[in-house]
Amino acid sequence: MRTNDAQMLVLSALVNGPLHGYAVSTAIERMTGTRLGRGSLSSALARLHGKGLIEYLDAEGRRRPMRLTPAGREMLQCEIESLAHTAGRMFETVVPDRAAYQDRLAATDLARSYKQAALDALAVQSGHVVLDLGCGPGADLETLARGAGPTGVVIGIDSDPQMVRRAQARAARLARAGVLGADVHALPLPSSSADRVLTDRLLQHVADLPRALAEVRRVLRPGGRLVMAEPDWDSLAVDHPDLEVSRAYTRHITDRIVRNAVVGRQLPRLALQAGFAVTSVAPATSVFRDVHAADQVLGLQRNTERAVAADYLTDRQAGSWLDHLAQGPFFAAVTLYIVTAEKPSQI
Ligand SMILES: C[S@@+](CC[C@H](N)C(=O)[O-])C[C@H]1O[C@@H](n2cnc3c(N)ncnc32)[C@H](O)[C@@H]1O
């Protein structure tokens, strides 16, 4: 047997001892910020009494205080444990290790699918020198090395020492692959030395997009190809009955969490301005219908807490937002763009 919301609120209001009806109503208002209608309160009281979950105390006068019965206390305990279990399963409460997070993400079906599209666009051939800029823990090094074959070379580059260590351990198992700790704004590589360059969700983080793209152009050989897979976080659509809450959540991500949050849509313009020819633009939309899977990518609870701290959501909005997401049905989608660009051959 499960209680409905109003009955649950009454049970919670009585947890610390007996109360009169009006005091139950006040306690609920204090807990939730809203007043339970008189009809809902009376009907909840009648049902709880009928189920033997609350009882009235003998008292002088018309208004008798009520309290939880042992069965009512047990019911409340069960509901709380069930909610705690659901919340714990739904949302991650700790920030995951950065490299492990990227590895876990790369292994999802959604990531595999857009990564395959990006690798197809890159069209690595045997003998190519391939750069994976912002390679993270090196999830793509093996596939790139397979494409470049025994005469090609794959170089992963990342500015985060933890990522570099993880990627170097991976590259050590491959014949002709290496990983350097370096910044994409100043690559430690000769001009015109690479046939192919991949950026997979790197450019959303860089401090100076035109400078980073100019550096990529410098190291690519004329006729060489750059494939960029970058999200547009403004396209993040999470279903919630209150559209403003959903918009506020997305606005917080684009304003505060990701440095170049809408780089996906800007890539064709930025690439043209950097002197590339843009040969194709393909969208890859990830659709999530499972809140747990979405949370692993989007960090729903963590980012909701940050949105509250930054005044994008109130505590109440955040509570109703997370409750709704946990209860489902859940829907979220975000689009990433795969943009292929070429450095024109010199005339
Ligand atoms: C979202 S992760 C993507 C990792 C990897 N490309 C993948 O698909 O799994 C972005 C990576 O870019 C790296 N990064 C961010 N800014 C950088 C910069 N200026 N130069 C080099 N790497 C950078 C981060 O350290 C991080 O590992």
From TrEMBL:
<feature type="domain" description="Transcription regulator PadR N-terminal">
    <location>
        <begin position="10"/>
        <end position="77"/>
    </location>
</feature>
<protein>
    <submittedName>
        <fullName>Methyltransferase domain-containing protein</fullName>
    </submittedName>
</protein>
<keyword id="KW-0489">Methyltransferase</keyword>
<dbReference type="GO" id="GO:0017000">
    <property type="term" value="P:antibiotic biosynthetic process"/>
</dbReference>
<dbReference type="InterPro" id="IPR036388">
    <property type="entry name" value="WH-like_DNA-bd_sf"/>
</dbReference>
<keyword id="KW-0808">Transferase</keyword>
<dbReference type="Pfam" id="PF13847">
    <property type="entry name" value="Methyltransf_31"/>
</dbReference>
<dbReference type="Pfam" id="PF03551">
    <property type="entry name" value="PadR"/>
</dbReference>
<dbReference type="InterPro" id="IPR036390">
    <property type="entry name" value="WH_DNA-bd_sf"/>
</dbReference>
<dbReference type="InterPro" id="IPR005149">
    <property type="entry name" value="Tscrpt_reg_PadR_N"/>
</dbReference>
<dbReference type="InterPro" id="IPR025714">
    <property type="entry name" value="Methyltranfer_dom"/>
</dbReference>
<dbReference type="InterPro" id="IPR029063">
    <property type="entry name" value="SAM-dependent_MTases_sf"/>
</dbReference>
<feature type="domain" description="Methyltransferase">
    <location>
        <begin position="126"/>
        <end position="232"/>
    </location>
</feature>
<dbReference type="GO" id="GO:0008757">
    <property type="term" value="F:S-adenosylmethionine-dependent methyltransferase activity"/>
</dbReference>
<dbReference type="GO" id="GO:0032259">
    <property type="term" value="P:methylation"/>
</dbReference>
